[in-house]
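Ticket #4471: structure export looks truncated?
Reporter: QA, pipeline team
Priority: medium

Steps to reproduce: submit the single chain below to the structure queue and open the exported record.
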Amino acid sequence: MKQSIDRREFVRRCAVAGAGIIVGPSLSKALQSSGIPSKYELSSVVGDRYFDNTMKAVDALGGMRRFVRRGDSVGILINSPSYGIGTYTNPDISLAVVQMALDAGAKEIYTLHETGKRYWQRSGLFDKMKTVVDRIGHSDEMIEVAIDKGKALKRVEVLKNLLSCNVFINLPIIKDHEGTRFTCNMKNMMGACSGSSCRRFHFGESSSVLNLFKGYYSDVELLAQSIADVNLVRRPDLCVVDATVILATNGPSGPGEVRRPREVIAATNCVAADMYAIRHLGLDWQYLSVIRFAQEHGYGPKTLQEITIKSI
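Actual output as written to the record:
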């Protein structure tokens, strides 16, 4: 069963419950002085200036210096491999995050999924920011880690820098996905895993050649549980979601319907960000296995009303 939810309905549900908070500039100060907890914070900026709006979204959470300290190493995980409209994170958003991290004093910045020069060249800011791009490193070195609390995934190979970086920033795009119905922060974690590990997300420990005939999405519940499990390895310190131009059908690669919400979302929790962003796909988080399994692991909100949202 699937229900759709738009921005107005999202706001209505929060307001009716009385605990969810949609924060405007004038209300924000009052809430700060009232002692209302803000465990799950999220900001939203809508408009066409994606680089500037990314900075505004992060500033609304307290600025990049809240997350990055001088001398830190920063790992960024960008959904960059695709080329179709609405299938990859806009590089203007990624460049804004890199610039803010450097301004905050980051010593090193690594991509946690190989992001070639062609990705950065898709930005109209590339020529101006080439020296910034040149400072971004990458290493393919993998390390295997155990997931003691994993239900479907008990071990996984991830990029070593995912574990060694001081700050982990996730930079997904929200879009449709044939298997899990959507891809955003939690699904993006597969980009930091080895190919052999990603196959286990789809087929478990079985290595039978028959898996090729079953198809990658023959066991969606296994895939969803594995995604929830891998996020136990490490969760982002900061999430910045591209909801500017997104693929709304026939994902993850398309072609399909393209929508233009023009929204940049910044959040302190990956589950909260995913629960908020999926409204652009007409989905309700209550019917999505990835979110339910993450909630069962206990690393995200159980209701929309636990999320404090600042709309800029």
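Status: closed, not a bug. The export was complete when the record was re-opened. Leaving a note from the reviewer for reference: The two ends are 33 Å apart (CA to CA).
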